[in-house]
Structures are given as structure tokens and as C-alpha cells.
What does this fold into?
Amino acid sequence: MNTNFMGLDESVFPGEYRDCDGAIGARLVVRPFHARQNARQNDQYAGMGFGIELAVGMQILPRLILATRNAHKTAEIRAMLAGEYEVLDMGAFPECPEIQETGVTFLENALLKAEGVSRRVNGWVLSDDSGLEVDALGGSPGVWSSSYGGQEGDHARNNTRLLREMQGIRERSARFCCTMVLAKEGQERAHFSGTVEGRIIESLCGEQGFGYDPLFVPDGYGKTFGELGGDIKNRLSHRARALAKVVAYLTGLPDSP
Ligand code: ITT
It folds into this structure.
């Protein structure tokens, strides 16, 4: 028998609670008793004609608020923290103004985002500033990865420009970098970084992931992040490595979320 997290028979209580990260669920069900008799023997409502069930379930997870508007980052971080943290992003706080990323390092921008958002939102805020550093291009696009092609967040243009800049270059080593800042009440509490080394290939490969993933082959693999998919990427990426340090830091902290 499949049971949900409340230990309730899924055939009787189908699915309502499956996705409720840190949420409280309540449900009232009225249905003819013969349907319930089929589902469960010893039905206390058998013979009443209708059964009324009230189920209240509670699963509270600690909450992290991501200072990002990049849905791909959120999806990756949410997948990596599944079952451990409830993960929200700026989509849940439409009143929060966009933070200008005026820094020239990943840390400066990550600080601006985490502290800026945590001045306006209660709770633990986590920012992610990340990008691709290509050795043959002197570390570009780096902090400017998101707008490398001329338009903020246009991944297709970014990849087109990267391929153009790399034409004829044999030395293709590169790394993804990620710096995360944890902040609360407008103040940084800690920051952590992660990198993953690899190389840039000569044409796009793979549909998964986002950004430069179809051009980046991590060391030790023969395929791009775009081909390898989330399960592998989330084990070795720059983001996974920074996030592991965040989680280790939060675990056991007296005021951890
Ligand atoms: P937020 O500032 O709202 O978090 P953003 O996408 O603007 O979103 P960044 O300023 O940190 O975030 O820029 C990150 C860019 O770096 C991203 O748009 C991609 O071009 C690239 N990038 C970062 N991580 C990546 C990854 O895992 N895979 C592919 N490209 C990545």
C-alpha cells in the first residue's frame, strides 16, 4: 500500500500532500460509503450512506529565500535541498525591488543581492552569483556572464558570442564559479564558493540545464552539462559545491532556519 507522509493510504487519500514543502494541508472529503468500503475494510462509516473525513497534515521544513529571479538556479537549488528546506525565490515576493548588480566580483554581487533582499524580507536569504571563466579569454565572461551576448539573460546570444570569441583557439579550459551569501536582517552571515573545472567545446550539445551548459564539458566527463542532465550536474557543479558548504554551515547553528 502506498502511504503519504501522514501515513494515510494513498488510495483513500490520493496525493494531496505530496508536494507541500513545509506546508500545512487540510482536507474535507465527503463520499458515498460504498466507495470507501472498496478502499478499506472495517470502515467506521459503513452503513451511514456517506463518510466524512477530515485530514490535517503538517510538515514544517526550514525555509530559505533565494535572492534570485533566475528560475533555473531556483530549480537546481530546490532539487538539491529537496526534503530538507523549503525553497522560495523572488517570485514569492513581487513587492521586492530588483537589486542592481554593480559589483565587479561574484562576492560583491552576491552580497548586494543577499543583503538587499534580506533588508526587505524576513528570514534566511541566500544569494547565488555565478558565471563562466574562460582562461583563453582572460577570465571572461566572468561576472558579466549573464549579459555577454548584449542582452541580460539571453542565453542563446551569450553562447553565440562565446563560440565566436573561441573560434580557432585550441586552449579551451574554463570553469564555472559560484559564490553564495547567506544573510539575515540585512547583514551577511557567511559566504561560500564552489567551482567546477572543464572545457568549452566547439558547438552546442545537449538541451538540458541552462546558460552555457551546452558548451561546457566538466573534467572527467565526455559530455556537456547540457547532455549530462540535472542528476549529474547537481552532484558536481559549482552551485552544488557552494551549496554543500552552506548546508554544513547552517546545520547546528543555534539560530539556523
Ligand atoms: P540572479 O542575479 O537573479 O540570481 P542571473 O542569471 O542574472 O540571476 P548571475 O548574475 O549570477 O545570475 O549570472 C549568472 C549567469 O552565469 C547565468 O545567466 C549564466 O549565463 C551563467 N551561469 C551561471 N551558472 C550557470 C550554470 O549552472 N550553467 C550555465 N550557465 C550558468
Remarks:
- The pocket of inosine 5'-triphosphate is lined by residues 68-70, 73, 101, 128-132, 145-146, 153, 158, 176, 209-213, 237, 239 (CB under 6 Å).
- The helical segments are 33-39, 71-80, 106-118, 155-165, 225-228, 230-236, 238-250.
